[in-house]
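Quarterly update from the structural biology core.
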Amino acid sequence: MTDTNDMRNRGDAGFTLVELMVVIAIIAILATIVGFNVFTAMDDASITQAKSQIKNFETALTAYRLKFNRFPSTSEGLDALITNERGVNFLRSKEIPKDPWGQPYLYTSESSREFKIVSYGADRQPGGSGEYDSDITNDLESN
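Predicted structure, tokenized:
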């Protein structure tokens, strides 16, 4: 009789295949939800980083203008913030940072009083639509 009780106890101690499948399904659903939220947060962080870098460029360009009475020309580009005739490094870095998607920022200056800085966003193409693919620029109307 003890042999029969031992067999029953061993069978009751494990999980059934259905129970395991339910647990795996719940874990998969939770992983999907967490993964989606993590990727969304990473995209949001990239946009915030690009806007922050553009603000840093604006500050450095303002300091450049105070020193040289003009903004760098389009041909000089943002490199003029690091390498210029007076040897002043307005960014305090060795090189111009790339945008969060690994692309260089586009700098244009049509006059000595205006400039524009653009990152094409996640799609790396001019224009773009949606929150993540739209261009990010220092032009307040575009943001």
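The longest strand covers residues 106-111.
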